[in-house]
């Protein structure tokens, strides 16, 4: 059987085409592709799922992350983000800029106040505990 297969492999395709017929070959290829393509991707991937999840995806993410981190400077230059931000800020009115700065600073001051209250409370509790032992 192996010798027959080797003979078939060495046989010129045009001779096979003449023997079987173009239309029959076309139909066979069409049926094979239709059977293969009609399967849901999940069914095709199932045998490889563990390998994909444990090996391929981490490698792709790692390589992609390394490539992207090496390209950040070039991407920023190509996008001209500094120029875009500068031109957008220049179009703002002074009132709008004041409003933005005040809203940001109010939020930050509020967080600083909360943090101060939290730290002050923790320090006072710690002082009370130490005071009990002394």
Automatic annotation (TrEMBL):
Organism in which the protein naturally occurs: Thermaerobacillus caldiproteolyticus
GO terms under cellular component: endomembrane system
Listed transmembrane segments: 112-133
UniProt-recorded name of the protein: Uncharacterized membrane protein YheB (UPF0754 family)
Source superkingdom: Bacteria
Cited InterPro entries: DUF445
Main location: membrane
Subcellular location(s) of the protein: Endomembrane system
Alphabetic keyword roster: Membrane, Transmembrane, Transmembrane helix
Family affiliation: Belongs to the UPF0754 family.
